[in-house]
Amino acid sequence: MPVKQIYLDHNATTPLHPEVKIAMQKAMDVFGNPSSMHSFGRDARALVEESREKIASFINAEADEIFFVGSGSEANNTILSIFTCEPSQCANPCNMAHEIITSKIEHPCILEASKCLQNRGTPILFLNVDNYGKIDTAQLEKMISSRTGLVSVMMANNEIGTIQDIKKIADISHKKGALFHTDAVQAVGKIPVDVKKLNIDFLSLSGHKIYGPKGVGAVYVKKGVKFCPLIRGGHQEKGRRAGTENTLGIIALGKAIEMRKVEMDKEEKSLLELKSALKKGIEKSIPDIRFNGHPTDCLPGTLNVTFQGVEGEAILLYLDLEGIAVSTGSACSSGSLDPSHVLLACGIPAEGAHGSIRFSLGRDNTKEEIDYTVTKLTEVIKKTRKMSTAYK
Ligand SMILES: Cc1ncc(COP(=O)(O)O)c(C=O)c1O
After folding, report:
1. Radius of gyration of the chain (CA)
2. Do residues 74 and 224 touch, judged by C-beta distance below 8 A?
3. Cβ-contact 341, 158 below 8 angstroms
4. Same domain flag for 144 and 175
5. DSSP character for 32?
6. Which residues pair with 181 in a beta bridge?
7. What is the dihedral of CA 194, 57, 218, 365, to 10 degrees?
8. d(CA 344, CA 349)
9. Per-residue pLDDT at 80
10. CA 20 to 30 Å from 315, out of 91, 134, 218, 292?
11. Contact 42, 189 (CB under 8 A)
12. Ligand 1 center to 9 CA (angstroms)
């Protein structure tokens, strides 16, 4: 076990905020079913509603525009499925078999859900991005038509951190009469999000990316927008998501958001400073590298780097031996590693995509940790390049 342990993988998940942990410990005794009318149920209900209000106010929504789900993936699957319900079996039919437009750099939960819908007959169109991972809005203008029911574009990318011009994309969508959804799982709690200013109809968020627990998320649905649930059953969440609420997770998510409200702005400054130190350190000590993602419109703590001539997995494993946790964007399929679909969409060749590492910094990281990471990374790259036949 290495002496130091440095966690630079906050886009994968975050540790619980100490205040969230305290709130969860207290909430463990609240066992009533929030749907029950007796005092046990009412106690749980009051805490669930308090949480809903905190989340709504953080993104400038109304409390009844928020409902809770089991994850960011469920939130995204729910919204993508809104046009697939069977009208004859739905109390609130909105099925018009509409086409959906999304992008090539979305999280797998959007891409896989899209492929599934496509196989079942829903036309899905995929937007390109430029070298920085920005959506081609001119292409969206050409692609969108009266057939388009929904446009779904992520607010910030999990691998490269690029932040999209959401207001512009939402406005283009609305001009053609389409609804607009954004996967804001990596954005809420890291950058300011105002659903009214950004003209958003649906938004997804998740607890474990913002120092809350895993297995809880929330969806924003603009008032008046018709909506069919993915999970049917009881009348929980006003019929928008059946299943007894994850009271503990919801209370913790509310607390995590409350802490983001207090800490986000200050943290942004320190994350930008740490990222800049990491970037400068890498530039100074390691040749033949490339930074991916947008240089300015980027999440404050995310830095994606390609190291020419080496495999990302080798870098990851050697850094892990030094106690440093990072990630690659490669995905495992049929026993082999596929290069990141995000980097490929940005025009990075497969060899480059295979040699890329994502550093995602968080609230507890320090300058000392960054300096240590640069030192160890420099050694690791030297070592792996020496062994590499691909590095000239
Ligand atoms: C952009 C984005 N969307 C959705 C998800 C899925 O969220 P969850 O892990 O809560 O299902 C993730 C998780 O990595 C993500 O980064």
Report:
1. 22
2. no
3. no
4. yes
5. S
6. 152, 202
7. 80
8. 6
9. 93
10. 134
11. no
12. 13
Cβ of 217 closer than 6 Å to ligand 1, yes or no, is yes
Q: In this structure, what token pair is assigned to residue 117?
A: 């819908």
* Token pair for 261: 């409200």
Residues 192 and 294 in one domain: no
SS3 category, 316: helix
User: Does a structural domain hold residue 392?
Assistant: no
Residue 220 CB-density burial (10 A; 0-12 exposed, 13-18 middle, 19+ buried): buried
CA distance 176 to 149: 9
Q: Give the residue, by CA position, lying nearest to ligand 1 atom 16.
A: 158
Instruction: Answer with the one of 244, 259, 274 that is the final residue of a domain.
Output: 259
Choice from 73, 74, 77, 111 to test ligand 1 binding pocket (greatest atom count within 8 A of CB): 73
| Tokens coding 256 | 């995590």
**Separation between Cα atoms, residue 342 and residue 352, nearest integer Å:** 12
Same domain, yes or no, for 168 and 295?
no
Hey, whose CA ends up nearest to atom 8 of ligand 1? 72
Last residue of a domain, one of 259, 292, 311: 259
Mean pLDDT by 10 residues, the chain (392 residues): 86 98 96 97 98 98 98 96 69 65 97 92 95 97 94 98 98 96 98 98 98 98 90 92 97 98 96 98 98 98 97 96 92 74 96 94 98 98 93 81
- Mutational test site, ligand 1, from 77, 109, 114, max ligand atoms within 8 Å of CB: 109
Question: Within this chain, do residues 77 and 136 fall inside the same structural domain, yes or no?
Answer: yes
Q: What is the pLDDT of residue 26?
A: 96
DSSP 126: E
- Do 226 and 324 fall into the same domain? no
Residue 389's Cβ-side half-sphere holds a number of Cα atoms within 13 Å equal to 0
CB of 71 within 6 A of ligand 1: the answer is yes
Q: What is the pLDDT of residue 227?
A: 79
